[in-house]
Design brief:
CATH class of the largest domain in chain D: Alpha Beta
Chains: A alpha/beta (260), B alpha/beta (326), C alpha+beta (93), D alpha/beta (429)
CATH superfamily of the largest domain in chain D: FAD/NAD(P)-binding domain
Structural class of chain C: alpha+beta
Strand content of chain C: 15-25%
Largest sheet of chain D: 8 strands, mixed
CATH topology of the largest domain in chain D: FAD/NAD(P)-binding domain
Helix content of chain D: 25-40%
Helix content of chain C: 10-25%
Oligomer: heterotetramer
Chain lengths: 260, 326, 93, 429
C-alpha cells in the first residue's frame, strides 16, 4: 500500500496574526506547525501502513522552513518526504497550489492520497478536491472513519452532520476531519532520526511549471488586501420585567438577527 | 448580459437556506440588467418546492439523471460544470455548505478557473469582481479579486439577505447531463443520521451555556429546556464542570472547547476571560446575568440584566409559542 | 485603567491541556484558614467556590511559576509542569 | 538503543550551554525542553553581565542577540506618595567592551539553541522529562511519557523548581523562605520613544531598581529594563514574606500597585502590554544549593540554586552559563575516562569552586539574611523620602537649618538601636 500524505506548514494556532500597515500583507509571528487536519491525515496513513504494510510518503509545498514540518512528519513515522520548494506558489491561490501538487503527484505511484479537509491559515478547503479533479480521481471529503481492504475503501464522511458511508475504489483522495483519530506525538528517537534525514527538494521547474505562473497578476484569483473582523457593537441591554425582556430577546434573535 | 448560475441544494422538500439567500441575491443582480440569473438543481423536486423556487428565479433547470439522485462530488461537478460551460455562464455560485464546499472546487478545475470559498461579502459590479472571505478562523478577512472567468464562488450561510423578489414567475426546464454513470466512482452505501438531536458544541449553530449563577446542578434543567426548545446544544463554564454539575465535554473555554455558533446564549456566566476566549467568535451573543457589571456583557450583542430563574423559562415559553404559531 | 489580571494573562500565548496539571487535596484545603494560594498566585487563579466550599484553580491561565506549590506549606497542591506542547509559551521572556 | 553520552534536561542557559559544549567536544547529546522552543518557558528580569561569562562562550558571546547595553543605573526609593530617584552613569559603559546588556529570553535562548544544534546537539522541544532512570544506584537516563532513553550522564538544568534534583534525592522540597516570585510585564514602545524618554542613544539601555513601599514592607523590589522596542517591568517578592504578610496584599495586587505608581508610569505610559509572566528565583544563596552531583547526574543553573540577590544587582544568568559549561567539561572528562561515578563527577564541584560561581555564592552567603530585614523596605525608604520632603518643602513657617532638619528626621526614623543592628548585619555583605 503506497500512501501519500499532503501536508501544509501553517502558523501555529497561537501565533499572532496582524494586518500590516499597508493592508496588503499579514505580519505573522514566525512560529509554525503542521496543519492540524493534515496531522489527522498523516496519523491515518501511519495506521493504514501499520495494518496493511506499505510506505507513507509526505509531500509539501512551501518555503525552505517547510523542511521542519516534513521532519516532524518523519519523526511521527513517515518513511519519506519531499519538499516542493517554492514560496510564490505556496503563497498563491488554491488553483495554483492544486496545480503544482497534482503535477508532483502525477509522478508518484500510490493507492491512497490523504490530506486535511482544509488548512487552518487560508481556510479554503479547495485544494484536495481540485487535485482529485486534476488527477481524474474520486475523492471523499471530511472523513471521520476510513477502512481500506481489497483495493477499495469504505469511508465515513461527515459533510453535514449526518454520516454518509461511502465506498470507493482505489486510488482515491480522502480529506481528514477532526475525530478521524488522535495523532501521535513523535518520540524522541523519532525526532533524532528525522533530524538526520536528508529531505529531497523539487522545484516547480522540475515539475514542468514556470515561476511566473504563480505571480498574483497571472493567478486566477489574488488577495487584494486584508481587513480586520467586524467588531461586535456595544451591548444592547434589553430593558423591562423578566417576561417582557425575554419576549423581546426572542423577537430580536428571531426577527432581527434571524439566528433562531 | 452575464449569466449567473446558482446551484440550489435541496434537502427533502426544503431548499437550503444558503441557496435561497443566493437566489435572492442573484435576483437582485438580475434587476440591475447587467446579469441574468438561473437556478440549477439535481434530483427529485416536489411541485411545492418547484413553485417556491420559480417565484425567486427567472429560470430553473433541473437535471433528471438518476445518478444525481444522491450526492456524489464527481457527478454533481460534471453536471454543473457541463451546463455552465455549455451555456457560457459568467458566474457559478453555491452555498458554502458541506456539499457546496466539497464539489465546487472540482467545478472550478473542470472549467479551468479558480474559485473563492466561503465568502461573506461580494462586490459583483467591480472589475474584476472582488469577494471578502475569512481566514485564520475569522481572525482576519481577505478581499480577493477574481480576474479569471468564469467566477466560481461558495458563500457562507447568513451572508446575504433573504429578500424575496416580487413578481417573478420563472420558466422551468428539465435536462439530462448524460453519460454520468461511468464518471462517478464513489458509491453511497447508507446515511446514518446523527444520533439524537444534539450537535457537538464545536459544530453547533446554537448554544445555550450556563455558569455558576445557576447555583445548583439541577437548575441546569432551565438551560436544557431552552436549548431543547430551540434545538441548541448545551454548554458550560469551567467552574460548573469543576463542581461536577456538567460533563467535561460541555466545557467552553480555553481549557475546553472553542465554539463559534451563530447564536450563543450565556446565562449566569460572569465572563472569566478563559471562557470568553472560547466563545468570542460567536456571531450573536445574548448574555443573561443578574449583575449588570458582569464582564460577559462586554462581549455580548444583547444583554438582559435580570434573574435567569425568571428569564430562561420565559424565553423557553416564548420560543415554544412562536414554534406553535409556525 | 489597569487591566484585570485575567486580561493580562489573555495577552500570552497559552496552549491548554484538557487535564489540569494542578490537583488540590480538598480535604486539606477544607481545613486551611490562610488560603495562601489565593494571595501568592501571580495569575490570581485560585478562588473558593462559595456554593460548594471547595477550592478552585483555573489552571488554564497558569504561568507555571510554581509559587502556589511552594507557598502551600500544608502540601495540598500536587503540581507538575503541563505536558510537552502545553501551557504558557512566552514570546519575550 | 545504546546509551547516548549525555541528556540535558531543560533548554535554559545552563542546559543550552552544556549541550553546546558537549556537542563541541564531539559528544552525542540530547537536550530535552518542555516548551515549544528553548526559551519559551524562561523568564529573566533581565540583564546579563558579559565579563564573567566571556571565557565560557568565547566564540559566540559577541554575536548574541542582546537588546541594549546598559549605560545608566536608576534607583528609585518609594514611600507612600513620594519618591526619591537618583541615577548613576559612567562614560566608560558607553564604550566597548560593554559591561552588561538587557536581554529577552525567548530570543536569546532560541539563538543559543541554534548554536548548540549547529554543533550537532539534538535540541528537542515539546518534551517534558517525567523521571530519571536508575541502574546500580546511578542515574542512567530519563523517562518522558512512555519513552525511556538511556544515557551515561544526565545534566539536570530544569530550572528553579527542579523536580529532578528532588527525585534524585539531592535536595529537600523547597521552603517558601528560600524562593521569591518575580512577576514581569512587557510593554511595547517604539525604539525612538524609548531612546527619547530615557535619554539614550541607539542600542543604549537603562536599568532601574525600585525599592521601598512597592512591596509593602515585604522582602523584594521592582525592576525596569529597556529592551530594543519593549520595556521589562517587574516586581520580586519573597514567597516567605508573602505568606506571612498580614496586610491582605496579593501578588497581582502588588504588581498593579507598582505599575500604577507615577514614578513607573512616566516610563511606560502609552506602552502596550505584550506579555505577563511569572517565575520563581532562588533567594537563599548558598544555603539552598543542593548536592550538585551524584553517580550519572549533575545539576546546573537555577536548578542548582545558583542565583544571588544583592539588593542592587540580581544575578543568575552568569552562574547558569558558567555552571552549564563546567558541567559539560566535567562530563567530557568523565566520559573520556569511562567513569561517570559520583567520585568522578565530584570534580564538577571542584571546578565550580575554582571559578567565580561558588566563591561568589559563598561571599554573599548572608546577603539574604541581611536584606530580609523589614526595615530596609519600610523605615529607611521613609526616612530618605521624608528627609528630602522636609528639605524641599517651603511653608509659611520659618525654615530650620539643614543640619537641624536632617538630625530631626534621622532621630525620628533611624537614630536608634535597630539601625545599629542593621548596620552590624550589613557588614556581612
Amino acid at each position: 500500500m503506497n500512501i501519500l500524505v499532503l501536508v501544509k506548514q501553517v502558523p501555529d494556532p497561537e501565533a499572532l496574526v496582524e494586518i500590516a500597515a499597508s493592508g496588503r500583507d499579514l505580519n505573522i509571528e514566525p512560529k509554525f506547525s503542521i496543519n492540524l487536519f493534515d496531522e489527522f491525515a498523516l496519523e491515518e496513513a501511519l495506521r493504514i501502513k501499520e495494518k496493511h504494510g506499505g510506505k507513507v510518503k509526505v509531500i509539501s509545498l512551501g518555503g525552505p522552513k517547510t523542511i521542519e514540518a516534513l521532519r516532524t512528519a518523519i519523526a511521527m513515522g513517515a518513511d519519506e518526504a519531499v519538499l516542493i520548494e517554492d514560496e510564490a506558489f505556496a503563497a498563491s491561490d488554491g488553483y495554483n497550489t492544486a496545480l503544482v501538487l497534482s503535477k508532483a503527484l502525477e509522478k508518484e505511484v500510490f493507492d491512497v492520497i490523504l490530506t486535511g479537509r482544509q488548512a487552518i491559515d487560508a481556510d479554503r478547503g479547495e485544494v484536495p478536491q481540485m487535485i482529485a479533479q486534476f488527477l481524474g480521481l474520486p475523492h471523499v471529503g471530511v472523513v471521520v472513519k476510513l477502512d481500506i481492504s481489497d483495493g477499495k475503501a469504505t469511508a465515513e464522511s461527515s459533510l453535514e452532520g449526518a454520516k454518509e458511508i461511502i465506498e470507493v475504489g482505489l486510488p482515491a483522495v480522502f480529506t481528514a476531519q477532526k475525530g478521524l483519530n488522535e495523532p501521535r506525538v513523535p518520540l524522541i528517537t523519532g525526532v533524532m532520526k528525522a533530524m538526520k534525514v536528508q529531505i529531497p527538494k523539487v522545484s516547480v521547474e522540475d515539475l514542468g511549471l514556470t515561476r511566473d505562473m504563480a505571480v498574483p497578476e497571472s493567478s486566477k484569483t489574488r488577495i487584494v488586501r486584508y481587513l480586520p473582523p467586524k467588531k461586535r457593537p456595544a451591548v444592547q441591554l434589553i430593558p423591562g420585567e423578566p417576561r417582557e425582556a425575554a419576549a423581546e430577546a426572542v423577537r430580536l434573535l428571531a426577527d432581527v438577527e434571524r439566528v433562531i | 448580459m452575464d449569466k449567473v448560475v446558482v446551484f440550489v441544494e435541496t434537502k427533502g422538500d426544503e431548499p437550503r437556506k444558503a441557496s435561497m439567500e443566493l437566489l435572492c441575491e442573484a435576483a437582485k443582480l438580475a434587476e440591475s440588467g447587467k446579469f441574468s440569473a438561473e437556478a440549477i438543481c439535481f434530483g427529485v423536486l416536489s411541485d411545492a418546492l418547484k413553485g417556491r423556487l420559480l417565484s425567486c428565479t427567472h429560470k430553473l433547470v433541473r437535471f433528471t439523471d438518476p445518478e444525481l439522485a444522491a450526492y456524489s462530488p464527481e457527478g454533481y461537478a460534471r453536471a454543473l460544470a457541463g451546463y455552465a460551460a455549455e451555456t457560457g455562464a459568467r458566474m457559478i455560485i453555491a452555498g458554502a455548505t458541506g456539499i457546496g464546499r466539497d464539489f465546487l472546487p472540482r467545478v472550478a478545475v473542470i472549467l479551468g478557473t479558480g474559485m473563492v470559498s466561503d465568502v461573506t461579502g461580494a462586490n459583483w459590479f467591480d472589475d474584476p469582481m472582488t469577494f471578502v472571505r475569512p481566514m485564520f478562523g475569522g481572525k482576519v478577512f481577505a478581499e480577493v479579486a477574481f480576474p479569471a472567468s468564469p467566477v466560481v464562488v461558495t458563500a457562507r450561510p447568513n451572508s446575504f439577505a433573504m429578500d424575496m423578489p416580487q413578481g417573478i414567475n420563472g420558466e422551468y426546464e428539465e435536462r439530462a447531463a448524460g453519460s454520468l454513470a461511468g464518471a462517478i466512482h464513489t458509491r453511497l452505501v447508507r446515511i446514518e443520521e446523527a444520533k439524537g438531536d444534539t450537535v457537538d458544541l464545536t459544530e453547533a449553530d446554537l448554544i445555550v451555556a450556563g455558569g455558576r449563577g445557576l447555583k445548583a446542578a439541577e437548575n441546569f434543567k432551565l438551560i436544557e429546556d431552552l436549548a431543547a426548545a430551540m434545538g441548541a446544544t448545551v454548554g458550560a463554564t469551567r467552574s460548573v464542570v469543576d463542581a461536577k454539575w456538567r460533563d467535561q465535554a460541555d466545557q467552553i473555554g480555553k481549557s475546553g472547547k472553542t465554539v463559534s455558533p451563530k447564536l450563543y446564549i450565556g446565562a449566569g456566566i460572569s465572563g472569566a476571560i478563559h471562557h470568553i476566549m472560547g466563545m468570542d467568535t460567536s456571531k450573536v451573543v445574548l448574555a443573561i446575568n443578574r449583575d449588570p457589571n458582569a464582564i460577559i456583557f462586554n462581549y455580548a450583542n444583547y444583554g438582559i440584566a435580570g434573574d435567569l430563574f425568571e428569564v430562561l423559562p420565559a424565553m423557553t415559553e416564548e420560543i415554544r409559542k412562536r414554534k406553535e404559531r409556525g | 485603567m489597569t487591566m484585570k489580571v485575567e486580561e493580562k494573562i489573555a495577552v500570552n500565548a497559552m496552549k491548554n491541556d484538557t487535564k489540569s496539571h494542578i490537583v488540590l487535596d480538598q480535604t486539606i484545603c477544607a481545613g486551611c484558614r490562610e488560603r495562601m494560594c489565593i494571595a501568592v498566585c501571580p495569575g490570581h487563579l485560585y478562588s473558593l467556590n462559595e456554593e460548594t466550599g471547595e477550592m478552585v484553580v483555573e489552571y488554564a491561565g497558569c504561568l507555571e511559576c510554581g509559587t502556589c506549590m511552594i507557598a502551600c506549606i500544608y502540601g495540598s497542591i500536587a503540581w507538575d509542569y503541563p505536558g510537552g506542547e502545553y501551557g504558557v509559551q512566552y514570546r519575550y521572556g | 538503543m545504546d546509551k547516548i553520552d549525555a541528556i540535558v534536561v531543560g533548554g535554559g542557559l545552563a542546559g543550552l550551554c552544556a549541550a553546546y559544549r558537549l556537542a563541541d567536544a564531539g559528544r552525542q547529546v540530547i537536550l530535552l525542553e518542555r516548551g515549544d522552543a528553548p526559551g519559551s518557558k524562561n523568564v529573566t528580569g533581565g540583564r546579563i553581565y558579559v565579563d564573567p561569562v566571556r571565557a565560557y562562550l568565547p566564540e559566540i558571546i559577541d554575536s548574541a542577540p542582546f537588546e541594549r547595553h546598559v549605560v545608566r543605573e536608576m534607583i528609585t526609593i518609594l514611600d507612600e506618595g513620594s519618591a526619591l530617584q537618583f541615577e548613576y552613569g559612567n562614560e566608560r559603559w558607553r564604550r566597548e567592551p560593554f559591561m552588561s546588556h538587557t536581554v529577552l529570553r525567548a530570543k536569546f535562548d532560541s539563538w543559543l539553541a541554534d548554536q548548540a544544534s549547529a554543533k550537532g546537539a539534538f535540541v528537542i522541544p515539546k518534551k517534558k522529562v517525567d523521571d530519571l532512570l536508575w541502574e546500580d544506584g546511578r542515574v542512567a537516563g530519563i523517562r518522558s511519557g512512555t519513552e525511556e532513553i538511556g544515557a551515561h550522564v544526565v545534566i539536570a538544568a530544569d530550572g528553579a523548581l527542579s523536580f529532578l534534583t528532588q527525585k534524585a534525592g539531592l535536595r529537600q522540597p523547597h521552603k517558601p523562605e528560600d524562593l521569591a516570585v518575580a512577576i514581569k510585564e512587557i510593554y511595547q514602545l517604539d525604539e525612538k520613544t524609548i531612546e527619547e524618554r530615557f535619554g539614550l542613544g541607539p542600542d543604549e539601555g537603562a536599568a532601574g531598581l525600585f525599592m521601598g513601599s512597592v512591596t509593602r514592607g515585604m522582602f523584594g523590589g521592582g525592576f525596569l529594563y529597556t529592551n530594543q522596542d519593549t520595556l521589562s517591568l517587574g516586581l520580586v517578592v519573597g514567597i516567605g514574606s508573602l505568606i506571612h504578610d498580614t496586610g491582605g496584599f496579593d501578588a497581582p495586587g502588588l504588581m498593579d500597585g507598582f505599575i500604577e505608581r507615577p514614578e513607573v508610569q512616566r516610563w511606560v505610559r502609552g506602552g502596550e502590554l505584550k506579555e505577563y509572566s511569572a517565575h520563581v528565583i532562588s533567594e537563599a544563596g548558598i544555603g539552598a544549593v543542593p548536592k550538585l552531583y551524584t553517580g550519572g547526574m549533575l545539576v546546573a543553573g537555577d536548578a542548582a540554586g545558583f542565583a544571588l540577590n544583592l539588593g542592587l544587582t540580581v544575578r543568575g544568568m552568569e552562574f547558569a552559563i558558567a555552571s552549564g559549561v563546567m558541567a559539560a567539561d566535567t562530563v567530557v572528562e568523565a566520559l573520556d575516562g569511562n567513569d561517570v561515578s559520583e567520585t568522578s563527577l565530584s570534580r564538577y564541584e571542584k571546578r565550580l569552586r575554582e571559578s567565580f560561581v561558588l566563591p561568589d555564592m559563598e561571599t554573599f552567603r548572608h546577603s539574604r539574611d541581611v536584606l530580609d530585614r523589614q526595615r530596609f523596605f519600610t523605615v529607611y525608604p521613609r526616612f530618605m523620602c521624608e528627609l528630602f520632603d522636609e528639605l524641599f518643602t517651603v511653608g509659611a513657617k520659618p525654615k530650620e537649618g539643614l543640619y537641624r532638619t536632617a538630625k530631626r528626621v534621622a532621630k525620628k526614623h533611624v537614630l536608634n538601636m535597630e539601625t545599629l543592628k542593621d548596620l552590624l548585619a550589613a557588614r556581612k555583605l
